[in-house]
Design goal:
By secondary structure, the protein is mainly β. The protein has 2 helices and 28 strands.
Length: 379
């Protein structure tokens, strides 16, 4: 196995607690390309080969962290493990010593991972194009939301202890709308369908819920694909219509195709969009950021606030933008960023910033970007 970059010392500070990999092993990832929806990666080039997509040819266990394909989501769990959800290569986990790739042989039958969350019981929940999966005590378990294929196209997860008494419940965003899950039963949570005639370049899924988040007051916010945002107040039980509030461009939102959600340290909500940049909601009104405000692209995948209070914006084609409250700084491949198509950002327990891009993983140590992009064939 050839490794482009090794990390012998970095993760001593990142991982405060190690766990054995539960006897799971890295195995082949069978990646049939026909299961990948090209429309999902509108911001990325249509050639998956160009973005490092190719099935793993043999089992591999990396002794360092090297990922050379499109990373859609990242999570550092309470135990310090780094999890990576990829578009075309499934799920990977780095335990501080080795990188493990999970496939159907391990119990997760999907190569497209869109979201990863951990609940209060330390279970890992994975949103995929083939249903919802949990990872508990070293084992994967699949949950089918419904008979419709679109219901099992899972895009987003929110862990919410209020759903099920005594245990963590989930809100699930799918291509067929929103659902709640109490550990046993899925229940549909109806939301209006979007009118996508206004957005011919958007992914044509009018019921799609891209992201779900809970604010400090307990409201649940749904980011939809062309329908703007819906806020649900569970405290209002007498009138279901009054419990659901709608926000769109008419109310000041920058764009109705909303890609992501984020809650900052002050309790403000951020919404990233496909065509309109970013909207920040302070509880009363929206403040919009776009290329007019020095963003490098109006297609923003995600926003992240680091431990210094700086905001980072992951864009499709414009690299990443850092805002310190006064100045905007754009980082691209010219500055060492691995790829200008960036979808997800994560700060680990050691203060390192990680960027999941269209061609792999890179890290920012505060001064420079460091590539963690391995061989494209994974071996």
């Amino acid at each position: 196995m050839k490794l482009i970059f090794c990390l012998p010392f970095l993760f001593a500070s990142v991982f405060t607690c190690y766990q054995n990999p539960d006897n799971l092993h890295a195995t082949d990832v069978n990646a049939p390309g026909d299961s990948i929806r090209k429309n999902e990666s509108l911001a990325f080039k249509n050639s998956f080969t160009e973005y490092g997509y190719s099935p793993l040819k043999k089992a591999t266990t990396d002794t360092s962290l090297q990922i050379s394909f499109y990373i859609r989501q990242m999570l550092q769990d309470k135990q310090g493990n780094l999890w990576f959800g990829t578009f075309g290569r499934g799920l990977a986990r780095y335990d501080g010593k080795k990188t493990y790739y999970f496939s159907e042989k391990d119990g997760i039958g999907s190569i497209v991972v869109r979201d990863i969350k951990q609940d209060s019981k330390d279970a890992i929940w994975i949103a995929t194009d083939r249903g919802l999966f949990s990872y508990i005590n070293g084992r994967f378990k699949k949950y089918s939301v419904g008979k419709e294929t679109t219901s099992n196209e899972i895009w987003s997860i929110l862990v919410d202890d209020k759903i099920a008494s005594g245990t963590s419940g989930l809100w699930i965003g799918t291509e067929n709308g929103a659902f709640t899950f109490d550990g046993k039963t899925f229940k549909s949570f109806p939301l209006p369908s979007a009118n996508l005639k206004r957005y011919p370049d958007a992914y044509q899924a009018p019921k799609l819920v891209n992201s779900i988040i809970k604010d400090r007051s307990g409201k649940i916010w749904f980011a939809t694909n062309g329908g703007g945002i819906y806020a649900y107040n569970p405290a209002i039980k007498s009138d279901p219509k009054a419990a659901l509030q709608h926000f769109s461009v008419k109310e000041g939102l920058s764009d109705d195709v909303v890609q992501g959600t984020y809650l900052d340290k002050k309790g403000q909500l951020w919404f990233t969009t496909r065509f309109g940049g970013v909207s920040r909601f302070d509880g009363n009104s929206f403040t919009n950021l776009s290329t007019k405000n020095k963003l490098s692209s109006n297609f923003v995948w995600s926003v992240y606030e680091d431990s210094k209070g700086h905001f980072w914006f992951a864009t499709a084609g414009g690299g990443v933008v850092r805002f310190d409250g006064k100045d905007y700084v754009v980082f691209t491949t010219k500055d060492g960023l691995l790829d200008n198509y960036v979808q997800t950002i994560l700060e680990d327990h050691g203060g390192n910033l990680w960027f999941g891009t269209g061609t792999g993983l890179c890290r920012f140590d505060g001064k420079k970007f460091i590539s963690h992009q391995g061989q494209s064939d994974g071996c």
